[in-house]
User: Fold this.
Amino acid sequence: MTQDLISDMIARLKNASQARHESTIIPYTKINLNILKIFKKEGYITDFTAETDRSLKVTLRYSGWWIKKPFFHEIKRISKPGQRVFSGYKNFATHFHSIKDGQGIAIVSTSSGVMSHFKAQKLKKGGEILCYI
Assistant:
């Protein structure tokens, strides 16, 4: 078992998506649950359910009806346990080119909880940038 559960979740989602699996199992933690809520709200996954008290079953979403194209073609962990990355609400776009163009979202852990960078900018909250899609 890894110590960095967010990186573990990201790797499982990316690998299952590239292998065109319908669903995948990830460890149940509060931060994983909050990140999955954001992914569902933004339309990157179809649904997730608590399979046991220790695991979550995530149903993946694809674009295209004939050739499935995964939504997780680029998902990256930014703030790592050895190198934390913090940003103010005005500087989110300076970290990533895809966010500057309006494509993709960053997941930010703020004092008000885990949220997308759009919501953090509206609330004028900075924080730790966990990952981006």
